Prior knowledge:
By secondary structure, the protein is of the alpha+beta class. The chain has helices at 3-8, 10-13, 19-33, 46-60, 93-96, 120-129, 140-149, 196-202, 206-215, 226-231, 239-283, 302-314, 328-342, 375-378, 402-411, 422-431, 478-484, 488-497, 508-513, 521-565, and strands spanning 89-92, 98-100, 115-118, 137-138, 158-161, 169-171, 179-180, 185-189, 233-236, 371-374, 380-382, 397-400, 419-420, 440-443, 451-453, 461-462, 467-471, 499-500, 504-505, 515-518.
Amino acid sequence: MKLETFFQKFDLFADAPDAVTKMRELVLELAVQGKLVPRDPNDAPAEELLQQIELTRSRTGKTAKGRKLERLPTVEPDESPYETPHGWAWCRLGTLGLVGSSRRVHEKDWTTNGVPFLRAREIVKLAKAGEVDNALFITEEHYRRLAAEGLTPEPNDLMVTGVGTIGVPYVVRDTDRFYFKDASVLIFKNWFGLYPHYLHIVMQSPYWIREVHRKSMGTTVHTLTIVRAKQTPIPLPPLAEQKRIVAKVDEFMALCDRLEAQQQERETRHAALARASLARLADAPTPANLPFLFHPSYSIPPADLRNSILTLAVQGKLVPRDPNDAPAEELLQQIELTRSRTGKTAKGRKLERLPTVEPDESPYETPHGWAWCRLGTLGLVGSSRRVHEKDWTTNGVPFLRAREIVKLAKAGEVDNALFITEEHYRRLAAEGLTPEPNDLMVTGVGTIGVPYVVRDTDRFYFKDASVLIFKNWFGLYPHYLHIVMQSPYWIREVHRKSMGTTVHTLTIVRAKQTPIPLPPLAEQHRIVAKLDQLMILVGELETQLTASRATAASLLSALIAALTTQNGGGDETQTPAD
């Protein structure tokens, strides 16, 4: 298969993660394997270039600045990282030129103007953007002293980062004039006329990245030392082929740039369509407009879809009103009547009267028939009796912390290693709050505000402060409150009002004070039914997107494998896949 054919098939795998990045990597990999351009039998083989280098070294003895270019051992056949074409040769980087560093410049010698002084981070910026906004300099006089006794960057030399993001190359331009930090940056002095842009390609290739990281040394920060860099094997083509390779790489990289721009334009257009669709539904939340959320001409990310649907649900824009519904105020009056009649609730817990949510406190406007109230008005918000770590056991009644509630909320089950004894559970249940069907558990630390509706089959106890409980004593439809506690509104509210230093916490006081948008009870049921229906559609969409991306990624991997394993130069190679 020709690489051009691969690019023509881009639409088939455009949805694969990092498709354009992988195409760039493929181009570079093929370039350094000798599979990008055809051979030319008239090219002088790379061995001749190496012989010329050796002749120059023997004749001069020493190089500029008194630096002696040592003879490095050849790359033996069993050391070659891979097979290269006829006419190529493997050699070490230090054979092609001097690999070194600079004289030390102390921080006290940095100035605010003069000659730029570049560290690894600035070389990375230069390599990516071609320029750097540099705040570090040394004086002109200092630079001249260093230049007289050390290695200064000259056109066609290469700078290579030695710490942090190691091995990043930059070809020194005619207009460049700077000094660089010892150890942080290495320099390749191109004294023997290697085509620098070919070496630049090698140092961007997946091969080089694998090699320098495999052989780099360091503890908390990877480093590329002079010794390791100069020992690294380099695949060397004939000089004429180096130039053809660079020209072809430039051509394909320009094509990658165009494909990347097209992708970004398409994503921008799709995002605008998605926003328009969501806005249309928000303005006119009728069943007729719901299909626009799932329009095939664009895809709204499933997470955004879910959040948008949850927002519409708690804003009263997901289902139509029914004038026969008893308004939410009647539900609140029934709750107040029950509280007045019973006085105290189960386990001797008194349900306090909380202040109403005044109009100027309402987070947003709700439909006619809805009401704002505080969570603590709808039921008791509390926690458990304290269970000490010494009372944990390896079997019995599950004992859940916030992390287990999060797992339950996401997966519906939890592989829990913590328990308390049956006897201990019964004592706690007699004097405290135990989870019962249709109560809600809410995480109070870490990932705060995550809700879980207690099922008929659940039997567990929970950690004080780490988990809060909402006792649903007044018949609120629990699955509606579950929707509220998954919505972007709730997440913003509990984080805005949460208290904590290193870890966010949701306290009982803050939770029970949180305003809740309350629809009529009948509408709560309709909202939950509609949301369940839409979330099934979102799940199906997510499955389709995942499958589509997986298919695209598999195709991309297969095409890359076909191209990287074929023999010969790019334009000469034909395979059945072509």
